[in-house]
Design goal:
single chain; 480 residues; alpha/beta; Spore Coat Polysaccharide Biosynthesis Protein SpsA, Chain A; 17 helices
Length: 480
């Protein structure tokens, strides 16, 4: 009887496991289709959507940017679902964080093959055709499709009143796909996949060129103005520039003055290394601080702070150890070397200069890329100071001369961050003037470091016993 009861329990457990596995498989298949057919999770009839895929050198940075943008929408009290179209290779812990912590709806999809890769080999754009899945979110009446580099200044829910396709012309002749409004349609989605497969003309090998070709008549469409009664329009419309303001417009006047539509959304096209989430983007580009303030008020910096604390401890430890070990460091560098003295001196000079240069390069690459600029620059200056202390104490170099670049960097940051410039031209001229005045001081510091090295090497040549040889026996000088 005992064995029979055990067998029954085992059969029940196996059946339960099989049922759970089949349910998980069905859920995975449903997610992989990317068809958005799960109505139970739809709180609103419209959605803000963005996409996420893997395989670029900066996957984590765009993951952080996506979360910050989607969280910022809550601060503006948008009345729409927030959807992330994520490829199946996006890590599951990222998906869970977006669903549980951010309240996003994540739709898992298979990557759409991009046949235009040869025209644009940049890995950043290799899977941007996944943006077409926005047309397959058929349970929504309207979808605002977004890139991760958007900064919202106010609520833009009135865009859901636009027609079947609406976009902004940042370029006078080419609309921008960083933000556009669409009406989902399974038929259009299938037609787009067919057009991709037969290689419809594409000017840039990415989604921008494909959609520009697919909606080639948008330039001739009327301008969108939201109806006061809240009804949804039909057809295609051009969106006012205020819904997608290029950040470069700001840098000329250092203020927003876009008369065409509400100044609602900022976009950051251009070089990926100057996206606003990188800590070095501010104060080089003033709007970087605005993005980080949005992150500070939404997502926070809990993921990066442990690394920051470890680096601070490391740098402070280096400063203390190099100061305490100064005599031993100098003995390692300045010691008698009889063979090829010229090569030895040249190599020592090269080593000293290389260590100073490395002190200003290495800390830059160790700082978490998406940390707040104030923390990032402070950590960079501390790291440069600590690594410079190695060269200062090892080669007995003048402290002020070695730290001159560090002082210069701090000065140029103050010049760029000054908030009282009349416009961007005055700001640029001030930076150039500072660089012009500081360059002679940097040259003087460089020559002083070389002169100090030469003096130390000559002293080593004439007084080797001071650093490497044992003292002469007593009475030795009396005999000679």
């Amino acid at each position: 009887m005992m064995w029979r009861r055990t067998a029954e329990i085992g059969v029940v457990m196996i059946i339960s496991i099989l049922l759970r596995a089949s349910a998980a498989v069905a859920e995975g298949r449903r997610n992989n289709k990317g068809d958005g057919e799960d109505n139970s999770n739809n709180k609103y009839k419209n959605a803000y959507a963005t996409m996420m895929y893997m395989g670029t050198p900066r996957d984590y940075e765009f993951y952080v940017a996506t979360r910050v943008m989607m969280r910022s929408l809550l601060q503006h009290q948008v009345q729409a679902d927030r959807v992330v179209i994520a490829s199946v290779d996006v890590p599951l812990h990222w998906v869970r964080a977006m669903e549980v912590e951010d309240g996003l709806k994540v739709v898992r999809v298979e990557n759409i093959y991009n046949p235009y890769r040869a025209d644009n080999p940049n890995d950043r754009f290799k899977l941007t055709m996944n943006k077409l899945y926005a047309w397959n979110l058929v349970n929504y009446e309207r979808v605002i499709m977004l890139d991760a580099d958007n900064l919202f200044l106010q609520n833009t829910d009135e865009l859901f009143q636009c027609g079947q396709f609406c976009a902004v012309f940042i370029n006078p002749c080419i609309f921008h796909t960083g933000l556009f409004v669409l009406q989902p349609s399974a038929e259009i989605f299938k037609d787009m996949l067919h057009e991709v497969e037969i290689r419809r003309p594409n000017s840039d090998g990415a989604d921008q060129g494909f959609l520009g070709s697919y909606f080639s008549n948008l330039l001739d469409m009327p301008m969108f103005h939201p109806p006061p009664n809240g009804t949804k329009l039909q057809g295609q419309y051009r969106l006012p520039l205020g819904y997608q303001m290029d950040a470069s417009y700001y840098y000329l006047k250092l203020r927003w003055n876009v008369p065409c539509g509400p100044n609602s959304v900022i976009t950051f096209p251009g070089a990926v290394w100057m996206k606003p989430w990188y800590w070095w983007s501010w104060p080089v580009l003033p709007l970087g601080f605005s993005w980080h303030e949005q992150r500070r008020n939404s997502l926070g910096y809990g993921a990066e702070m442990p690394m920051v604390i470890l680096e601070v401890i490391l740098y402070l430890g280096i400063i203390a150890l190099t100061r305490l070990a100064r005599p031993n460091f100098s003995k390692l560098c300045y010691r008698r070397f009889d063979k090829s003295v010229t090569m030895y001196h040249a190599g020592l000079k090269f080593l000293a200069m290389a260590s100073i240069i490395a002190a200003y390069i290495v800390p830059f690459s160790l700082i978490p890329y998406t940390i707040h600029p104030m923390v990032g620059w402070s950590l960079y200056l501390l790291g440069s100071l600590s690594l410079c202390s190695i060269a200062i104490n090892a080669f007995l170099l003048p402290t002020l001369a070695v730290l001159a670049p560090c002082i210069g960097i701090f000065g140029v940051l103050l010049v760029m961050a000054c908030p009282w410039y009349k416009d961007g031209i005055v700001r640029a001229l001030s930076v150039f003037a500072y660089a012009f005045c500081a360059s002679p001081l940097l040259w003087v510091s460089f020559t002083r470091v070389l002169a100090t090295l030469q003096v130390s090497l000559e002293r080593e040549a004439f007084l080797p016993s001071r650093l490497n040889e044992s003292p002469s026996p007593p009475g030795f000088n009396k005999l000679y």
